[in-house]
Specification:
The protein is mostly loops. It is 11% helix and 11% strand. The chain is built from 2 helices and 2 strands. Keywords: Ribonucleoprotein, Ribosomal protein.
Length: 88
């Protein structure tokens, strides 16, 4: 019979923020491993297309990377795509 598992955190519902997968520990026990939510990345404020050159991270992780990685060297670098800047 398979080993039963319980969540390790207080949230006990199968929600988007509570995604888990089963792993086997070095001691041979099965346990849950919590997965982070996938990041969408920044999009252009005008046309909505994905901004190239900027990594797709969760919001809190942008605080840990440098300013150079959060924008491209252009006017409206981190919020508008090159085509929309050209139109402006």
């Amino acid at each position: 019979m398979a080993q039963r598992l319980t969540y390790r955190r207080r949230l006990s519902y199968n929600t988007k923020s509570n995604r888990v997968r089963v792993i086997k520990t070095p001691g041979g026990k099965l346990t849950w491993l919590y997965e982070k939510k996938p990041a969408k990345g920044p999009h252009c404020g005008d046309c909505g297309s994905r901004l190239p050159g900027i990594p797709a991270l969760r919001p809190r992780q942008y605080a840990r990377i440098s300013k150079r990685q959060k924008k491209v060297q252009r006017a409206y670098g981190g919020s508008r795509c090159a085509g929309c800047v050209r139109d402006r």
